[in-house]
Specification:
Elements (H helix, E strand, L loop, with lengths): L2 H9 L24 H9 L9 E5 L4 H14 L4 E4 L11 E3 L2 E2 L2 H20 L7 H15 L4 E5 L16 E4 L7 H4 L3 H8 L8 E4 L7 H5 L5 E4 L5 E8 L2 E7 L4 E7 L4 H18 L5 H10 L7 E4 L3 E4 L5 H14 L5 E5 L7 H7 L7 E4 L10 H10 L7 E3 L3 H11 L5 E5 L2 H11 L3
Parallel strand pairs: 1-5, 1-6, 2-5, 6-7, 7-8, 13-17, 14-15, 14-17, 15-16
Antiparallel strand pairs: 2-3, 3-4, 9-10, 10-11, 12-13
Length: about 450
């Protein structure tokens, strides 16, 4: 299939992330979630996801970072490691990687062509067309089999039970945390969300559980994992200090301690993510990792779009905080690691978010200026609605600006922010991805 046609064919499919082909109104629950399509698709491809072991990662926040970190740690031990993450910030290839390198265009397009050839067979079985994410999931699993990875670290797209990645049989299941998000798909309570995320835990798997709420533990235990490794009890952060370029962290895992490791990322939550990833890697390997290997791997950790510094004078930071818990973590990290300076908040979000709640969590009242913009997504919330929510919070309208495009919002933010100030871009990974394209050339 011609490369242009391959991407156009992919983009013509229903995409829950962008809203393409998704009816407005009904929730995922209302349209009968199912694994039938993805199960049939991978069967037609020869069930590639069963040809290598999998570390399966879910959680409300931090799952992309944990997936990347776990893959880096396992690769540092000498293993061949595939990783599947979402969403991407710039190009779709970012989602599917081998030892940190994205899938080449030619291989991605060839595999898309293969899936396109198989699509009519799904209709022959009476099944609907696969979704955009299901197709990419099948492509990732097939590529990992083709290149014969030793292990794949697979991030859940949404929830767990009904996510298309849940055709794998993860020998290690990771749940980073449970917070309120995507209630229209996962349910309104933390218990509902925990139940959905627990769906990735197979009987006999090792569960690495980063959420410490004792009320949720029985929900995960009911899935009958062979072993539960719990943050705070079995692993965690012993010490975490701000250091030049990141954090200096001491970790403990069930079988080892790792001291004074440099994690070159901002935010105390990244130390927690690193502890979860280190434990997941250790559980997969079945023994403590060599200290030198861990130190070298930690120095390579990166998390684009997560409290990432992309500019100076003024300082420009990008953070993919897109829910209340993530916004609180961002504000805490800014207070701990960055100087108190006039702050311009550039914010865009998707329409299922409550703009007032998000602005409160982002401490918008304390911002010197706020620039509201439209996320580059069919699901974007009108920036005018964000501005109205800011006014409802009591923010002076003279401090509020509205821009249609992310590039226009950034230009406005840079114009109104003094050199000693800071510009913080948040509210949606779509906004962060568009902003990153402005500051970080390809």
């Amino acid at each position: 299939m011609d490369p242009h046609n391959a991407r156009a064919w992919l983009d013509a499919h229903m995409n829950l992330e962008t809203g393409v082909g998704v009816a407005v109104g009904p929730s995922r629950r209302a349209i009968a979630p199912t694994l039938e399509r993805i199960a049939a698709l991978v069967e037609l491809l020869g069930s590639p996801q069963l040809s290598y072991p999998v570390v399966h990662v879910t959680g409300t926040n931090g799952k992309t970072s944990v997936t990347r970190m776990t893959a880096s740690l396992l690769a540092a031990t000498g293993l061949s490691v595939g990783s599947f993450t979402s969403p991407h910030l710039r190009v779709v290839n970012e989602r599917i990687s081998w030892n940190g390198e994205p899938i080449p265009d030619a291989e991605l397009d060839a595999l898309l062509g293969l899936v396109a050839e198989l699509e009519p067979a799904l209709a022959d079985r009476g099944l609907d067309r696969p979704s955009w994410f299901e197709i990419l999931t099948a492509v990732a699993f097939t590529w990992f089999a083709d290149i014969a990875v030793d292990v794949a670290v697979v991030e859940v797209g949404l929830g767990g039970t009904w996510d298309s990645t849940n055709v794998v049989d993860g020998i290690v299941a990771v749940v980073t945390n449970v917070s309120i998000d995507h209630v229209e798909y996962l349910g309104p309570t933390r218990a509902d969300i925990a139940s959905e995320k627990a769906g990735i835990i197979g009987a006999g798997a090792t569960l690495v559980l980063g959420d410490t709420d004792p009320e949720l533990l029985p929900i995960f235990a009911a899935r009958n994992p062979e072993r539960i490794v719990l943050r705070g009890r079995d692993f965690g952060v012993v010490a975490d200090r701000v250091a030049h370029g990141g954090r200096l962290v001491d970790f403990h895992t069930p079988d080892a301690s790792y001291d004074e490791l440099l994690v070159p990322l901002h935010g105390a939550y990244q130390a927690l993510n690193a502890s979860t990833a280190l434990t997941a890697a250790e559980c997969f390997i079945g023994r403590p990792l060599d200290a030198d290997v861990v130190e070298a791997a930690c120095r390579t950790f990166s998390s684009p779009g997560r409290l990432e510094v992309v500019g100076h004078r003024p300082l420009v930071l990008l953070d993919g905080a897109h829910n209340v818990a993530g916004a609180h973590a961002l504000v805490d990290a800014l207070a701990e690691e960055f100087p108190n300076a006039p702050r311009t908040l550039v914010v865009g979000m998707l329409r299922e978010k409550d703009p007032r709640e998000m602005l409160e969590a982002l401490a918008a009242e304390g911002a010197a200026q706020i620039v509201c913009c439209r996320a580059p997504s069919a699901r974007a919330l009108d920036p005018g609605a964000i501005a109205v929510a800011a006014i409802d919070l009591g923010i002076d309208p003279d401090r509020i600006h509205v821009a249609e495009l992310v590039s226009e919002a950034l230009a406005r933010a840079l114009a109104v922010t003094p050199p000693e100030g800071e510009v913080v871009v948040a509210g949606s990974l779509y906004v962060v991805g568009a902003a990153r394209s402005v500051f970080v050339p390809v």
